[in-house]
Structure to design on (1100 residues):
């Protein structure tokens, strides 16, 4: 956590066009990523975490509008042309997707994939060097050099995901965005790949943004964690701290509802994540929050730092001076029907 | 029954929600086709004369008369009224299209359904037959069928409709069969099996109901094609007997000689009718496709404007 | 594959299990590539279920846990008659249902229901929720009158928490959220009042905050309607909470089955142990586990000899089924750790590795042309010196240098048997005295 952030998002908003009103997938996010750091971005489906990841690497769909700042090494990426963005993607900004099967061209060998990738960014490089660097990257992922000339279909799902990671790493990106990289994989393979990603932050200077819905993965593989709800980051901090003492009620409830080997009773959050076309006013979690106060339904929460390196957007943590008189009284709401869920 | 209507309502609601070019295309197409359907139904009232009428009040019409107030579109070499023939011709066209559509749907859709769902040998044989039909030049096929049938049931509307049906059945068959094959693998079909649904129920309520949604688009696009095929058949003289009904293709073929003599109206009006009706059907088909196809719908969506940060 | 465990006749008579599965096998033939089919070649057979034995007692929840390719989904589908059983028996309340024709099976489907993983895909998009939920009643001719169907559907919807039902009856599946859809699927499954519900990953596509709600609903339904569950999942955490007994599957076989509490507290099979260790837990004190099985679930077309898990097992020993392909894996993993020039140099000494791809307990690793067996043996020796504790070496009987390569013979292997361990049944040589004795008996080639 020393020095300037390699990647910083300021007031980032990404809205998707629909046939009606826009969907506010990411709606005012500030986030910093430092070299050699793994930041876990967690949230439930539809909270905007994948959109956030895609906006970092400039791979938003046509119908998305972006506002705010995505700054990489001090340059604002939002202002770059598609061509300049393509040049950055690979050697500077890497991306690993969830489904490895669809990202490899079935008609060409692994070797071909590597050659294409490296040569796009380093045109003059000779074949021997390509081979050396590719085999090194593959070996790091546990893929034997004997399989370099094989086709994607000759590999299992887990192997293909490793190949995708190797393809991303062979260019030594300074920032790597991994969007649910293990979700499609079995637990043992998942654990193997998380081990590799954990080594990555130890051995390289890569900054890793790991997007996942699985709190267990964040706990095991990340230094820091940012919790996202309805397009906003509600809490961020050191992973251990956040898991040990969640500050935001959403983080707390999410942790409680996660079924783990330690679970002895079922717990869930009533209601459903809001529709991001017309999100609730003020704090977006207030309709479901067990600790909601009057102020939560009226005024946007202010980001505060309950402890160093920690930030949370929740009135429970103040600032008290900004809560109007009587604002801390519990919020009265109607019952949320059981069936109203995601 | 209620459910069928509901499906229609949902489709209409989708149409209403759509904005821009596709909606305009669809509306224009429906307008054009509607006009021709209107003419077809009310031909006896709308048309000033019969399609083969050459006299009125005992007076024979002039030959190849220039358009004027008595004959708005002029007359032909046989003295028939061009306007009347165009209007009666729309009846013929609509009748043939509707008949061939019904035949194609009755034959093509069930064949595709069973072939796709049951599979095996039946499927292989049917696919082979349909592919063989598909491989023929469509016009040649239509001519052969029309020729064969002309001995049996004469050269009427039914013959033309059957000839056209044979051309289009393989298309319905293919589209339906391929769609059925993918629907058959859907989890909800498995779920229905697991719940104990009899096979015919699965085909009817679970497979057919989902496959049929593609049919309106193909049907309208094929209708456009069918108009052209019918016109071509008649142009070549394999279609409907001139004594039985007015037909645009026949009129156009007769007008070829006139064209050299500067008599444009005998060819232009029926030709225009063909173009207009084909365009109408195509607009409906493409419009429906644009409106109903989610991928195309999605592609039309525009980037929203993000307002400056509201102060909170 | 003979099962060692047999319930005594007397017990069977008084407490007959609701579902008794014996030696169940399901195979799928692969269609292969276009070229294969053209040549009339069979691309092979996948033994998705390879001799499965278990029983499901009335009112219990049996969890079937496994990774992809374990055959757990095929098990569910075979029980329902959606995939054909190629051998073995499935008895529902004493009545054989394996291999029944669709028409004989249909009436029995009222007693046996399934919930699929993807609630969205399991609902016909062209039907309303009300029609969908009541449809099973029509399938079986139980209710035909429209008003009665509607009220039955409403009752089922309310039972699963979709209340008031009027809000949902006329909606289409696409109007519902994931959790609501899964509730509708459950409503449809219970409307026939079944005895057994096979739930194939019913919550894995749902968000964390919704999973608990659906599991809670399933538990409530089980108590109210006296249901028996077969809960198929890859998620050991939900299974621990949800199940009374657990069966762990690997490559078409049950490798361990027993009371949930016992399995989680004291996993017997090394695979179970590994699965439990690999689960990422939301506990910041943990870090990524390291001592995990290597590699991935192998191809079920040609499963490993002996115990299917032996190539990945950290506790495998002499008789677990060592064979030619394990030698290839070992060589490749050595090369993975080498620098590129080192690898190139060593690879140049060895001939075609594909010679090892046919499973055999005796194989020849060919030398490259111009090389002799001694050079290849040198590589193997240094490999052994490097990692003498790799379980692979326990399975090697002899390594002989030949002019054209080396001949490697492996120890005689045993197929693992079902063994009773406490209340559990485990299929692993570690608990088999005979296997342990055989392992010790003949000297290893050291």
């Amino acid at each position: 956590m020393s020095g300037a952030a390699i990647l910083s998002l300021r007031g980032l908003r990404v809205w998707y066009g629909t046939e009606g009103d826009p969907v506010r997938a990411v709606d005012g996010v500030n986030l910093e990523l430092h070299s050699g750091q793994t930041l876990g971005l967690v949230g439930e489906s539809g909270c905007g975490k994948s959109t956030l990841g895609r906006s970092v690497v400039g791979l938003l769909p046509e119908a998305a509008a972006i506002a705010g700042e995505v700054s990489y090494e001090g340059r604002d990426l939002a202002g770059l042309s598609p061509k300049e963005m393509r040049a950055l993607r690979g050697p500077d900004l890497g991306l690993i997707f969830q489904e490895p099967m669809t990202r490899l061209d079935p008609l060409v060998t692994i070797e071909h994939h590597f050659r294409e990738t490296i040569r796009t960014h380093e045109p003059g490089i000779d074949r021997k060097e390509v081979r050396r660097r590719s085999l090194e990257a593959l070996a790091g992922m546990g893929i034997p050099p004997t399989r370099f000339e094989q086709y994607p279909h000759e590999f299992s799902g887990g192997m293909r995901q490793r190949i995708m990671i190797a393809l991303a790493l062979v260019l030594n990106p300074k920032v790597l965005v991994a969007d649910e990289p293990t979700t499609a994989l079995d637990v043992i393979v998942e654990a193997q790949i998380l081990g590799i990603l954990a080594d990555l932050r130890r051995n390289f200077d890569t900054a890793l943004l790991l997007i996942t819905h699985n709190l267990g993965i964040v706990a095991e593989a990340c230094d820091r964690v940012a919790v996202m709800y309805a397009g906003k980051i509600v809490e961020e901090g050191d992973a251990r701290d956040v898991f040990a003492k969640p500050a935001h009620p959403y983080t707390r409830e999410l942790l409680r509802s996660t079924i783990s080997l330690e679970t002895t009773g079922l717990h869930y959050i009533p209601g459903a994540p809001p529709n991001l076309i017309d999100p609730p006013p003020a704090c977006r979690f207030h309709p479901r929050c067990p600790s909601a106060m009057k102020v939560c339904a009226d005024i946007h929460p202010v980001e505060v730092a309950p402890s160093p390196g920690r930030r949370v957007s929740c009135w429970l943590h103040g600032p008290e001076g900004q809560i109007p008189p009587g604002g801390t009284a519990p919020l009265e709401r109607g019952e949320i029907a059981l069936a109203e869920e995601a | 029954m209620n459910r069928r209507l509901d499906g229609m309502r949902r489709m209409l609601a989708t149409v209403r929600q759509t904005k821009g070019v596709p909606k305009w295309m669809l509306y224009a197409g429906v307008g054009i086709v509607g006009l021709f359907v209107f003419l077809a139904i009310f031909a006896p009232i709308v048309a000033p004369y019969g399609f083969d009428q050459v006299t009125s009040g005992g007076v024979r019409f002039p030959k190849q008369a220039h358009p004027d107030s008595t004959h708005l579109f002029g007359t032909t070499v046989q003295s028939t009224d061009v306007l009347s023939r165009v209007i009666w011709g729309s009846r013929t066209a609509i009748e043939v299209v509707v008949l061939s559509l019904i035949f194609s749907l009755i034959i093509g859709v069930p064949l595709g359904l069973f072939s796709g769902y049951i599979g095996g040998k039946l499927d292989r044989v049917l696919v082979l037959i349909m592919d063989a039909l598909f491989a023929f030049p469509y016009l040649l096929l239509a001519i052969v069928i029309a020729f064969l049938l002309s001995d049996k049931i004469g050269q009427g509307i039914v013959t033309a409709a059957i000839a056209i049906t044979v051309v289009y059945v393989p298309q319905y068959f293919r589209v339906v069969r391929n769609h059925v094959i993918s629907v058959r693998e859907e989890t909800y079909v498995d779920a229905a099996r697991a719940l104990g649904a009899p096979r015919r129920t699965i085909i009817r309520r679970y497979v057919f109901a989902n496959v049929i949604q593609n049919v309106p688009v193909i049907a309208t696009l094929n209708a456009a094609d069918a108009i052209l095929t019918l016109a071509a058949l008649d142009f070549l003289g394999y279609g409907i007997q001139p004594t039985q009904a007015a037909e645009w293709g026949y009129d156009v073929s007769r007008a070829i000689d006139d064209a050299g003599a500067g008599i444009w109206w005998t060819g232009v009006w029926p030709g225009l009718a063909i173009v207009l009706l084909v365009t109408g059907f195509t607009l409906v088909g493409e419009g429906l496709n644009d409106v109903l196809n989610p991928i195309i719908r999605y592609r039309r969506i525009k980037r929203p404007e993000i307002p400056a940060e509201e102060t909170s | 594959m003979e099962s060692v465990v047999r319930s005594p006749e007397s017990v069977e008579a008084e407490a007959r299990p609701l579902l008794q599965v014996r030696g169940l096998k399901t195979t799928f033939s692969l269609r292969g590539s276009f070229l294969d089919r053209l040549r009339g070649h069979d691309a092979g057979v996948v033994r998705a279920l390879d001799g499965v034995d278990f029983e499901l007692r009335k009112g219990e929840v049996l969890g079937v846990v496994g990774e992809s390719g374990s055959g757990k989904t095929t098990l569910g589908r075979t029980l329902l008659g959606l995939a054909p059983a190629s051998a073995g028996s499935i008895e529902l309340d004493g009545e054989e249902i394996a291999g029944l024709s669709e028409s004989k099976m249909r009436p029995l489907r009222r007693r046996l229901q399934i919930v699929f993983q993807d609630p969205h895909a399991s609902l016909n998009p062209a039907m309303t929720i009300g029609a969908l939920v009541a449809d099973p009643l029509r399938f079986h001719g139980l209710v035909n009158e429209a008003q009665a169907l509607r009220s039955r559907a409403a009752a089922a919807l309310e039972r699963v928490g979709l209340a008031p039902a009027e809000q949902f009856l006329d909606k289409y599946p696409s109007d519902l959220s994931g959790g609501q859809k899964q509730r509708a699927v459950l409503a449809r499954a219970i409307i026939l009042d079944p005895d057994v519900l096979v739930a194939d990953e019913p919550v894995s596509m749902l968000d964390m905050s919704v999973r608990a709600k659906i599991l809670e609903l399933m538990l409530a339904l089980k108590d109210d309607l006296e249901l028996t569950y077969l809960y198929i999942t890859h998620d050991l955490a939900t299974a621990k909470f949800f199940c009374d007994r657990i069966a762990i599957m690997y490559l078409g076989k049950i490798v361990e089955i027993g009371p949930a509490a016992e399995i989680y507290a004291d996993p017997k099979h090394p695979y179970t142990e590994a699965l439990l260790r690999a689960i990422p837990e939301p506990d910041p004190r943990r870090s990524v586990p390291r001592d995990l099985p290597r590699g991935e679930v192998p191809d079920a077309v040609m499963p490993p000899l002996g115990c299917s898990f032996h190539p990945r097992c950290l506790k495998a020993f002499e008789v677990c089924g060592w064979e030619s392909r394990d030698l290839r894996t070992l060589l490749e993993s050595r090369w993975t750790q080498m620098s590129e020039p080192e690898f190139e140099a060593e690879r140049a000494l060895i001939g075609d590795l594909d010679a090892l791809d046919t499973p055999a307990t005796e194989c020849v690793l060919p030398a490259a042309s111009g090389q002799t067996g001694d050079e290849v043996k040198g590589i193997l020796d240094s490999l052994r010196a490097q990692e003498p504790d790799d379980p692979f070496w326990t399975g090697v009987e002899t390594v002989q240098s030949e002019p054209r390569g080396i001949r490697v013979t492996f120890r005689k292997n045993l197929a693992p048997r079902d063994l009773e361990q406490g209340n559990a049944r485990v299929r692993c040589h570690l608990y088999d005295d005979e296997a342990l004795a055989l392992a010790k008996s003949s000297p290893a080639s050291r």
The interface with chain B takes residues 80, 82, 102, 106-107, 109-110, 113-114, 116, 118, 121-128, 131, 135-136, 138-140, 172, 185, 188-189, 192 of chain C (CB under 8 Å).
